[in-house]
Structure formats: C-alpha cells, structure tokens
Amino acid sequence: MLVGYISTVIKMTILEVKDLKKHYTIGGLFSSKYLVKAVDGVSFKIEEGDNFALVGESGCGKSTIAKIIARLIEPTDGTVFFKGNEIFHDFKNKDNIFRRNIQMIFQDVYASLNPRRTVFQIISDPLKNNKLGNNDAIFNRVVTLLKDVGLTPFESFIYRFPHQLSGGQRQRVGIARALSLEPSFILADEPVSALDMTVRTQILLLLKALQVKHNLTFFFITHDLSVVRAICNKVTVMYLGRIMEMSPTEDLFKNPSHPYTQALISATPIPNPEKARQKKKLLVKGETPSPINPPSGCHFHTRCPYTMDICKKAEPELLSIGKNRFASCHKLQNS
Ligand code: ADP
Ligand code: MG
Question: Which one of 72, 87, 156, 250 is CB 3.0 to 4.6 Å from 67, fit for a cystine?
C-alpha cells in the first residue's frame, strides 16, 4: 500500500536518452561524401505512465531516434537507458527480455504485417517464439487481445489475412501483436498518419484506453500536433536533429515558447473559422534546410522572425524556462 502510494508520487524514469547522435555518411565512390546529422545531441527522460510525444517536421530525426531505442540501428554517440540498463550493452545477449519490454507499432500498416500469415498467426507468433503457454492458452490469449483491440466478434477476424482487412483493422492487428508479450513500453512511430480521419480518431481513442488498461508508457512519434493534443501529456519538439522545446502538453498549447513551436501551432488548422481568425499566428519563411549542411548556431535562425546576431554563431543550450519546461532559444534565455 505504502509502496504503491510512494510510486504514484515519485514517478520512475523508464527511458533516458543522453546526448544521442546519429550521423550518416552519404555519397562516396564516384561523388563527394556528405555527413547527414540525422540526430545531433538529443537528451530526454520518459517517466512510467507517460504518453510522451516527439514532434517535428518530416526529416527532423524522429524515426532515427525510434530505431535506436528499438535497437534496430546503433547510435554514432550517446546512450539510451531502459529501466536503468544501457540498451546496447546491458541487454546484450538478453534480446528476449528487451523485446518483451519494448514493442513497436508501425506507420505502414500494409508493410508491417506479413501478407501470408493469418491474424491468428501474426498475433500468436511472438507468444510461440517465447514459449508462452500451450496451444489452448495461446489461442485464448489471441482471442482476448482481439477483443481488447475491438476486433469482435473474434471469429470473423482470427483466420483472415491482412489483405482481407481495412487499414484501421490492420492497425488494430498491429496493436494486438505489440501487446501480445505484455510490454511496459510502446514505441509508436506515426501510428495513425496513414489512416483516414475518422479511423484515426478511433485508433487514438483505442490507444489511450489500452494505455490505461495495461499500464503502458507510450513514446508517440508524430508530425501532427492535433494527435499530441488528443492523447499525450508531454511534448518534445525537434528541428533538424535537435530539441527546440520540451513541455507538458497543456502548457505548450496554451503558451508555446520557442518560435518554432509557435510556428508549428500556427500551422495547425482550426475547424472553427471565428477561432481561427482570433488565433495569434507566427508564420515562418522558407523551407526546412537540408540536414547535410544545416545552418550555423541555432538551426532555426534562417527561418526565425526574431533572429539576433548570437543565433547565427552559437548553438543555444536546452535550458529551463519555467516549471517542467525547457527551450533552446537565445531570445528566451536573454529576455
Ligand atoms: P523523420 O522520422 O523525422 O521524418 P528520419 O529520422 O527518418 O526523420 O530522418 C532524419 C534524416 O536522416 C533525414 O534527412 C533522412 O534523409 C536521413 N536519414 C535517415 N536514414 C538514413 C540513412 N540510412 N542514410 C542516410 N540518411 C538517412
Ligand atoms: Mg519518420
């Protein structure tokens, strides 16, 4: 009882990313070599029970971070701790334990399910591979998971192949598969961006309900701020491989601090025309620069309406700008 109370008051860090870098060398042989700094010194912590969002425009390094956390690729530098264990060293030769704890939900629902396997096979494969029960127990577990993700009556889905399902139903199968090993941490990389608007809302509501029911921590990657607002409690905003702002969701929408966050929020459509007219807008000029040769100093300075001299020369540090809020911006730190 006391332990339960203390753990609800003191939240445990489940994932910690420290000064993570991933640089790719492209070209060579017959052309010049270039360095792509996909992720360039990113640090953050996720606490147990968080629904943590990583947002930013396409190409800013979100999926690269997800792939490193899932141990699909190795970082150039930096460390990732999961429940206090460094993922590349402490989990070496303990792949089963790692995979059971961290599972992924993918954006591409068409490519992420094997077209030759039935729904039953797709969901039961992880259970069989980990020898989690006899045939009856595995069948019952698959039925429970299908019910959990809203594929009912289960009899009409369990022996279908992926091509016999709609996009939303396929994503539900992907979610059931991710939950099969009872993970504590779910990495969801753009899980709804390939779906129709109405299906998108249903899947977001399902994810939110499953998070509560299964006591999950979510790491949610998206370029869509409306998704963040719907289900996430914390947001980290990235731009060209670096963090611009970190904040509780409510504060970020009420009072976006970094000029880039202001621009992102200004670009989010508002259905009510009256409210849209009243909204304070910050529009940025130009396109996102290439990560091959990113701007000096603050990467955002070429598009920022408040650029000062120092922004062109020095990279701003990610510093506290209020309770639980951090931003890397010279203007905010000097005002
Ligand atoms: P996001 O998920 O935010 O859209 P990514 O993490 O996929 O961005 O990519 C970040 C940057 O790294 C992009 O400029 C992308 O082109 C580059 N990149 C990703 N993977 C590779 C790779 N294997 N080789 C070279 N460049 C890559
Ligand atoms: Mg991506």
Answer: 72
Determine if ligand 1 sits within 6 Å of the CB of residue 222.
no
Neighbours of 171 (CB within 10 A): 28
Confidence (pLDDT) at 143: 97
CA distances to 52, 69, 261, 263, 325 from 237, in Å: 11, 18, 7, 12, 12
As a whole number, the mean pLDDT across the chain is: 90
> CA-to-CA distance for 223 and 225, rounded, in angstroms?
6
Ligand nearest to the CA of 107: 2
Q: Name every residue whose Cβ is closer than 8 Å to that of residue 256 and which is 6 or more positions away in sequence.
A: 245, 262, 264, 265
Nearest CA to ligand 1 atom 26: 24
Alpha carbon of 61 to ligand 2 centroid (Å)? 7
Instruction: Kindly state if the Cβ of 62 falls inside 6 Å of ligand 1.
Output: yes
End-to-end CA distance of the chain: 47
206 Cβ neighbours under 8 A, 6+ residues apart: 149, 150, 172, 175
Residue 26 in contact with ligand 1 by CB distance below 6 A: yes
Token reading at 197: 């608007």
Q: What pLDDT, in 10s, does the model give residues 192-204?
A: 988 888 899 999 9
The one-letter code for the residue type at 314 is: A
Residue predicted with more confidence, 302 or 2: 302
pLDDT digits (tens, 9 = 90+) for 299-315: 999 999 999 999 999 99
Q: Give the DSSP letter string of 68-83.
A: HHTTSS--SEEEEEET
Q: Of 123, 216, 214, 140, whose CA–CA distance to 177 is shortest? A: 123
254: burial class by Cβ within 10 Å (0-12, 13-18, 19+)?
exposed
Q: Residue 241: nearest ligand to its CA? A: 1
Residues 68-93 have a mean pLDDT of 92
